[in-house]
Amino acid sequence: MKKIKNKISFKLFYNDKFVMFFSILVAFISWISVASTTQESSVFTVTGIQINLPELADNMRYFNGEDIKAEVKISGNALVVTNVTKDDIYVTAADVSFINAPGEYTVDLVPRKSGVKTDYSFVSSVSPSSINVFVDRYEEGRVIPITDKVSVNSVAPSRYVSNTLLSRQSVKISGAESVVNSIAEVDAEYTFTDTLSETTVVKVPLVFYDENGKRISSRYITSDVTEVDATVQIFDVKNIQIIPKIINIPEKLDFNNELINVEPSTIELAVPQSSNYTSISTSAIDFSQITKENNTFTVTLEIPSVCKNINSVETAKVSFDLSGMSEKTLNLTSSNFVIKNQGEEQNAVVSNKSLTVKVIGPTEKVNLLSPLSVTAVIDMSDKSTVTEGYVERPVTLEFKDPFTQCWLEGSYTVNVKLSPNKTEASASTSR
Question: What secondary structure does DSSP assign to 291-345, as a single string?
């Protein structure tokens, strides 16, 4: 049985694959034997070693240097040195005791063994042998406003460039204290070289400057944003009609708007491209204040805040052509007074026995006008719950046909005496 096994084993040496494997195994074992017994040292280079700088006093820290990778040559038994990795060595500064204030320093580097593999020696200095480091205290979260420095070289005809809108108004900056505190201005800088015809949005980088206008590197600082969205608004330029706003026009007044003149009648505005503005109003003109002598009013223009006043026109002159109008004084009596919207429990009586008013209207109508042609209306709507005492109430005139083109000039009031409505009170008692 033993004889058969030996025969089979010997035949393996006629197999080429087995012979190759056997040769490699013998060579490896021989190399292990020689390497472990030889007294000669092998040199090996370890690369990609992390630099670990020692802590500093007085709350100072490094703002660079630790991201640099180093390398060093080691010697020793071949089996040992070839198994030493970058994690078995750390590189540090030989001495940092001289660093006592913020600034730039050069520190020498030395290697140290940090792993369990220590049966080797360093045969060269660290590469690099020294590094430049920037040291400072840490400043966190200084908030600085962003200055708009976006410019447009040209726009299309009948277009207007409005102020740029930035997506952020300020930036929060942290990092090396001396660098952060040296920042005097943060600019959003961008120049459009193309002709713009519509509102455009671009991303604009932020640039830092000191008080002398010198650009500051962001190497030792960080910011919560490095760029902002800048919206350059392009408006359409249009001639917009000016329409006077007139209040207190009598409800039944048949006033000819052709008698109104506005100067200027239009204004040039830059309006948002998405808007449909065709007109703007003036501040209010009280119709009751229009007289033969007082028929021209200078009023401010109510320009929408989203529009731009290109020509800086702030006011308009509104005049009423009353050359065909006349004025007349009417003496009204109690027969002309009508109280409306009286409260259910309220008895209202006009105390005035008479009221002298002045009216204005077309000459041919005014010449025929008499007290019988008007009704003096006293509205009690907002005093309907008052049941005792006297109140002063405004008077409006209602003109009967064919005098509806006339109106009351100025404003007038009467005194109204109030007392409980006895009929209502009796009905309430009986119930």
Answer: -SS--EEEEEEE--TTSEETT---EEEEEE--TTEEEEEEEEEGGGEEEES--TT
